[in-house]
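Exercise 7.
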Amino acid sequence: MLRFVSEQLNPHVAEWEAAEQFPSHEVFRKLGELGLLGLKYDPAYGGRGWTSLIRW
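Solution. The predicted structure, written as tokens, is:
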């Protein structure tokens, strides 16, 4: 996750802020490909069941 953020998100933050736009469809698609969505949900419902790793 840190690698994704540092390589795929951080380099574009200033550009997105200036444009007042965020490419959410692209970013969330990539997060999904990496298996980083639905982490808090039970695997029976399509999640990863990683609730113990997530701090709310």
